[in-house]
Structure formats: structure tokens, C-alpha cells
Write a structure and sequence with these properties.
The complex is a heterodimer of chains A (393) and B (303). Chain A has 393 residues and is mostly helical. In chain A, 47% of the residues are buried. In chain A, helix 2 runs antiparallel to helix 9 (245-271), helix 3 (101-119) packs across helix 10 (281-296) and helix 10 (281-296) packs parallel to helix 13 (347-364). Chain A has helices spanning 42-65, 68-93, 101-119, 123-142, 150-171, 197-221, 223-233, 235-240, 245-271, 281-296, 303-319, 329-343, 347-364, 377-383, and strands spanning 180-181, 274-275. In chain A, strands 1-2 form a two-stranded antiparallel ribbon. Helices cover 64% and strands 1% of the residues of chain A. Chain A contains 14 helices and 2 strands. The two termini of chain A are 26 Å apart. The model of chain A is unreliable at 1-28 and 366-393 (pLDDT under 50). With 303 residues, chain B is mainly alpha-helical. Helices cover 71% and strands 4% of the residues of chain B. Chain B is built from 11 helices and 2 strands. Chain B has helices at 2-32, 39-54, 64-91, 96-118, 148-170, 172-182, 184-189, 194-219, 227-242, 247-267, 277-289, and strands at 133-139, 142-147. In chain B, strand 1 and strand 2 (142-147) form a beta hairpin. In chain B, helix 2 (39-54) packs across helix 8 (194-219). The longest helix of chain B is centred in the N-terminal third of the chain and has 31 residues, at 2-32. The N and C termini of chain B lie far apart (55 Å). The chains are: A mainly alpha (393), B mainly alpha (303). The interface between A and B is large, with 47 and 48 residues.
């Protein structure tokens, strides 16, 4: 078992009751449950509030500043970050690698498109249906995950991503007899006066993304989140301390797939198309989600969003970097990915966090963050030998 | 009956291709614990090199057998370099996902560079095998007809598997490779150069991919950048089915996948267009019953 590496986690060694550092930890009256997370130091809290407010202002003002075309691209980054967040819950926090989230995304997209085109539903009403349906499919995939692990599981999910476009093109018939559905443009018209269609679409995506990210943040900080991390780090040890392995895995799979489904549903609004004519499109989607999660920072809250925006920005800028050689774009994109992994092995958010920790240590010595040491933390830390819980930044 | 036998033999031909790409995946997995998503595109690139060396009109017009050999040698060196330059520095980082990202980056990059250098038009690969068909035997009046290409493909790939087995099980080098695969730290203490072995593993995998890719391309009426897309999926299926750390498993599972696929295409009309359901369904069922695959070793986990 390795000791915590960053100096912020409590050491496991001292026997209960003889922890010399407990005085520094938030005092907990006997019988009262100490808080799960120590309160943030005041400067960090303040910085977070400032950054949060600034980001909100930028997010609210952005659609009025950019052109409709750029708004569409930003909205794509938003739905991509929702899917990447879903994958992050499963892969980043629970440790189950999936290369099949493109399929869940596709289930969401086609649910929305079919309900709108064939059954005349309004777009907004289809989102919950898409979430539930893809969540159910995710749950079904979660059951094999109880027995199949690691790379084998990754390949089962890969099979799903390969299978989906074929199933769709066999059973879905859109215009022209191919698996391609295009809801009418008017169906996505803005419901608020004064907002253009693209701005409306942006705000719908943003609102849903904010809700889902806050949900994920609360989830990973609570009981479920601890169970997920425990399953990731040491499955057997987790079961011995009472984590419901089956429930955690299947539940996370379902939730994660539902996120991808919502993203798929939103993609119909932004791209106005649900397309299964390309046999590898949904495999590419799966890869996109994985890439967004890793370059942003796996097992962080902001990571998937940062990664998604970085990915969209990179792709956009590699596309017209060399005129007349558009075919090279994927190569430049691939090289950029490799470079990011070289420079920031923990993703952008992980790298920033490490930088901040180093700065904090230098300026304020070891008291920058109170060690989260209290008697109640000991069993938790022994589940997660890494010591660094993944707290949202 | 005769149709059935023909389909089985075609399935064996395809299955050996899947099996040998799966072998390449398994060799890399065993030596470095990495799932190489770029394997298919590495093979595609080597296939283009073979084509460039062999083509009369657009290339150097070498005899096809020499071209394949040379291309395998180039692939070997390139594979070893990829391991040393791109994989190893990242592998030392904490997260295994990072290596996945590197192989995905390679996957994207190799495909687009190959298309940039060699063009996007379908190309024709000369075949190393004679044309024509062979009547194997007759059953009930109907002759079983197999193309000589299929027979040649089967012969070459079977020989490749046997050579590989001999290399790994009967030579000193093979022993070192296996030692590094099973416990790199311990192998290093015994004076084995683990780094060199890892490079060798990647080189071998790349060379195997070059052979498989070139042979498949020679069977087609033309190949382009999408040559390996489906093959790699079937190869992943075979590797998973075989248990990932077993070379024999990869080949056997490749055969199972190939034959199942060929028979489905022929006999099951309900799966028309979604034949891929069968091998993939097969993996799912096998893995749920045997989580370590058909030939995988059970691992004991300590907490």
C-alpha cells in the first residue's frame, strides 16, 4: 500500500486515537458525524467563487457575441462534454473502461429523431425518453460487466459501438431508405422571444449540461461516489467493507449511458440529423468521448468539459491548418493528442491542480490545506490507497 | 454439403487473417499490457508499402514475395521505434488510459498519412499465389472448389503461426520474451534487457500485421484506407475470445470467428447486413461464461 503522495492525505499508520494531527482537523464533537470533506480554506473558496461567477457571465454572454456558426460549434462542445462526463462517471471514477458510449449516444439520438419524425413529438419531450431508453440499454450492458472485466469489458463495449450503426441501418428507415433522419428545422425554433434559434439551442444545451454536471458533482462527493472510487481502486476490498458491487457497477453503467443518451438527443437539435449510414461513426464518437475525458482530466468534475472544448477547438483548428491537405487533419489531431498526453499525463485539470498544489505549498508551507485527518477518515483512506480523493475543482 | 465445406474453408482463410492480426494484438498485450488500437492502421501502412514496392505501374516493380518480405522488415523496425519513442515514455505515467490515447492518436495519424502519401483511390495488390481453382474432393457428385489463393493464404498463415510458436517456446530469445511478459522486474534482475524485448515484441507484431495486411489486400479486387477497419474489429473479437494472453487462443478464436461469420453470411438470412452480430454475440456469451476467455489463465488477485 503506497503512502499518499501529495502530502494532503492522512497517513494510515498511526493507531486510532493517537493521531497527533487531529487537533488541526475540524473538531467533531463526540457522537456527531464529522463532515465528509474538510471545509475549504478561505482563499480557495473565494477564488472558486470568483472564477465561477466569471465563467457564468462568459457562458451567458457568449451566444450574443459569437456568430450562429460558432454558437453551433460551442453547443457541440457542450453536448460532447455531457457524454464525456457520463463516460467519466463510469471510466474515470468507477474504473470500467467503455469504448461503446457512442452506441448509447446513438440510442439517444435515434430515440429523439424517431419520436419527432415519425410520431410528431416536440423535441423537449423526447429528452427524458432518450435518457431512460439509453439508460436501460446501459443497464443491460452493465450486467456482463459484473463478470467481464478490464480489457475484455472494453471490447464488449467496442462490439456495441460497431453493432449499433448496423442495427440502426437495418431497422430504421428514413428518407431515401437509409438510416438517416432529419427532423424539420422549424421544430427546433426558439421558444423565447428575442433569442435566435442558435442562441436558444445553446441555452438548452447549457442548462441541461449544468444540471447534469452539478448532479455528477454531488454524486461523486457522496456515498455513491465513494463506493465508485472504491470499486475502481480495489474491487475485492470494496466488497469486504460493504460496497454493493453489483449495484454500483450496474447503476453507474445505467447513469453513464443515460448521460450519453441525453448528449445524443441534444446532438439532434444541434446537428439536425441522426445518422447511422457510416459504419464507424459511432465508434469515432466513443473515441471522442474517451479522448475528451482523458485530455481534460479523468476523475475530475471539470475535466470532461475542458477536454470537450479543447477537442472541438483542436479539431476546428487542425482542419484548416494546411490548405489543400485536409486529409492530414486527423494526423495533426492525433499528433496533438499524443503531445497533450506527453505534457499533461493527468489531463489539463489534473495538471492545473498539481501546479496549484505546488504553488500553495511554496507560498504557505504545509498549512495551505488542513490535512483531512480525523479518526473517521482512516477506514476510507484504507480503501483508497492512492490517498488523493478526486474532489471537484 | 459442398457449399458448406467451401464456406468453412473460406471461413478458415478469413479466420486465419483475423487470428494473425489477433496474434499481433496478443503479442503486444503480453509483453507490454497494452491494447494496441493502432494495430490495424500499422498493418494498413505496411500494406501500402508492400504495394508501393511491388506495383509495376506506380512503384518499384519488385517481385511480390520480396516486396512482402521487405515490407515486413520495415514494419519490424518501425514497430520497435514506435514502442521506444511513443509508447514507453507515456507508459511510465500513472494512467493506462494515456497509452490508449497514444495508440488512438497513432490510429488517426497513420490512416491519414497513409492516404496522403499513397492516395485515396483503391489500389490493386498483386497476389503471390497462382490463380485458378482446385477441386479438392467430391462428395455426392459435387466437387468442392477452392481458389488457390485461399489455399496459399491458409498455408502461409499456418506456417507463420508454427514459426512463431517455435520462436517463443523453443528458442532462448523466446524464453526471454516470455520472461519479460510474465514479470518484467524479475526478468530484469536476471540480466534480460527488458526494454529490448519490448521493442522486439512490438516489431514482431508490426511484421505480422504487415504480412496479414498484404495477403488480405492481394485477395481483394482493390484496397483503400478502410482495408483494416472491419478486420481489426474481428481481430479484437478473436483476441478477447481467446483470452488475450494466449497465442494459441488468438488463432483458435480467430478461426471460430471466421467460420461463424462465413456460415452466417451463407445461411442466416435474418442477419443480412448485420452478420457482425454473430461473432460479437459469441464473444459476449463466451466472456460471460468464461470471463478470461477460452484460453486465458485465471488470475488470482491479492488484496
Amino acid at each position: 500500500m503506497s503512502m499518499p503522495s501529495d502530502g494532503t492525505g492522512a497517513t494510515v499508520e498511526p493507531a486510532l486515537g493517537t493521531l497527533p494531527e487531529t487537533a488541526a482537523a475540524p473538531a467533531a464533537a463526540p457522537g456527531e458525524r464529522p463532515p465528509l470533506w474538510p471545509p475549504l480554506p478561505r482563499p480557495v473558496l473565494f477564488a472558486r467563487i470568483v472564477i465561477g461567477v466569471a465563467l457564468s457571465v462568459v457562458a451567458l454572454y457568449a451566444p450574443f457575441y459569437f456568430t450562429p456558426e460558432n454558437n453551433r460549434i460551442i453547443s457541440q462542445a457542450i453536448y460532447l462534454s455531457i457524454a464525456a462526463m457520463g463516460l467519466n462517471l463510469l471510466t474515470g471514477f468507477t474504473g470500467q473502461v467503455s469504448i461503446g458510449h457512442g452506441a448509447f449516444f446513438g440510442v439517444g439520438a435515434f430515440t429523439t429523431a424517431i419520436l419527432m419524425v415519425d410520431h410528431g413529438w416536440t423535441f423537449e419531450a423526447t429528452i427524458p425518453v432518450a435518457a431512460v431508453l439509453s439508460g436501460l440499454v446501459g443497464m443491460l450492458v452493465g450486467f456482463p460487466a459484473l463478470r467481464v472485466r478490464g480489457l475484455q469489458l472494453a471490447l464488449v463495449t467496442l462490439a456495441l459501438a460497431v453493432l449499433f450503426p448496423r442495427l440502426a441501418s437495418k431497422y430504421v428507415e428514413g428518407a431515401g431508405g437509409v438510416a438517416l433522419l432529419r427532423p424539420r428545422r422549424a421544430e427546433f425554433a426558439s421558444l423565447i422571444d428575442g433569442l435566435d434559434d442558435d442562441q436558444w439551442a445553446y441555452f438548452v444545451c447549457l442548462a441541461i449540461a449544468v444540471v447534469l454536471f452539478v448532479l455528477a458533482w454531488n454524486l461523486v462527493r457522496g456515498r455513491m461516489g465513494r463506493a465508485m472510487v472504491a470499486v475502481r481502486d480495489q474491487e475485492i476490498a470494496a466488497t469486504t467493507v460493504g460496497v454493493n458491487l453489483a449495484g454500483t457497477k450496474v447503476g453507474t453503467f445505467a447513469l453513464s449511458a443515460a448521460y450519453a443518451g441525453v448528449a445524443g438527443s441534444l446532438s439532434v437539435m444541434i446537428d439536425r440529423i441522426a445518422d447511422a449510414t457510416s459504419p464507424i461513426l459511432y465508434l469515432q464518437r466513443s473515441i471522442e468521448f474517451l479522448v475528451a475525458m482523458v485530455i481534460g482530466g479523468a476523475a475530475t468534475i471539470l475535466g470532461p468539459a475542458v477536454g470537450a472544448f479543447l477537442l472541438v477547438w483542436l479539431r476546428r483548428n487542425t482542419e484548416d491548418l494546411i490548405e489543400g491537405k485536409e486529409i492530414l487533419a486527423p494526423a495533426i489531431f492525433g499528433a496533438a493528442l499524443i503531445a497533450i498526453v506527453y505534457v499533461l499525463p493527468e489531463g489539463v485539470v489534473g495538471g492545473v491542480r498539481r501546479l496549484l498544489a505546488r504553488l500553495g505549498r511554496r507560498s504557505a508551507g504545509s498549512v495551505a490545506r488542513p490535512a483531512p485527518a480525523s479518526a473517521s477518515d482512516v477506514p476510507n483512506d484504507s480503501i483508497n490507497p492512492g490517498g488523493t480523493h478526486d474532489e471537484g475543482t | 454439403m459442398q457449399l458448406f465445406v467451401e464456406q468453412v474453408i473460406n471461413g478458415i482463410g478469413n479466420g486465419l487473417v483475423y487470428g494473425s492480426v489477433a496474434l499481433a494484438l496478443v503479442i503486444i498485450f503480453r509483453t507490454t499490457g497494452i491494447l494496441n488500437f493502432a494495430q490495424g492502421e500499422m498493418a494498413l501502412f505496411s500494406t501500402y508499402i508492400t504495394w508501393k514496392l511491388a506495383s509495376e505501374s506506380d512503384g518499384f516493380g519488385l517481385p511480390i514475395v520480396a516486396a512482402i518480405g521487405l515490407s515486413m522488415a520495415i514494419a519490424f523496425v518501425a514497430g520497435a521505434l514506435i514502442e521506444r519513442v511513443l509508447i514507453r515514455p507515456v507508459e511510465q505515467a500513472r494512467s493506462p488510459l494515456n497509452v490508449v490515447i497514444v495508440t488512438l492518436g497513432l490510429f488517426l495519424g497513420l490512416n491519414s498519412v497513409a492516404q496522403l502519401i499513397f492516395g485515396t483511390d483503391p489500389q490493386l495488390m498483386p497476389s503471390p499465389f497462382p490463380e485458378g481453382n482446385v477441386e479438392l474432393f467430391s462428395s455426392g457428385g459435387d466437387a468442392v472448389v477452392i481458389s488457390k489463393e485461399t489455399i496459399g493464404l491458409i498455408a502461409v498463415l499456418v506456417a507463420e503461426c508454427i514459426l512463431l510458436w517455435l520462436l517463443l517456446q523453443r528458442t532462448n530469445l523466446g524464453l526471454k520474451l516470455r520472461a519479460v511478459a510474465s514479470n518484467p522486474g524479475s526478468a530484469r534482475l536476471h540480466g534480460i534487457r527488458a526494454g529490448t524485448m519490448l521493442m522486439l515484441g512490438w516489431g514482431m507484431a508490426a511484421a505480422i500485421g504487415a504480412l496479414a495486411g498484404s495477403l488480405v489486400a492481394s485477395q481483394r479486387t482493390g484496397f483503400d484506407g478502410s482495408l483494416m477497419q472491419i478486420i481489426i474489429v474481428y481481430a479484437f473479437a478473436a483476441a478477447a475470445l481467446g483470452g488475450f494472453d494466449s497465442l494459441l487462443g488468438a488463432v483458435v478464436a480467430g478461426l471460430i470467428v471466421g467460420i461463424a461469420d462465413a456460415l452466417t453470411v451463407q445461411y442466416v438470412d435474418a442477419f443480412e447486413g448485420i452478420e457482425v452480430v454473430v461473432p460479437l454475440g459469441l464473444i459476449l456469451v463466451v466472456l460471460v461464461i468464461l470471463p478470461n476467455g477460452l484460453f486465458g489463465r485465471r488470475t488470482v488477485e491479492r488484496v
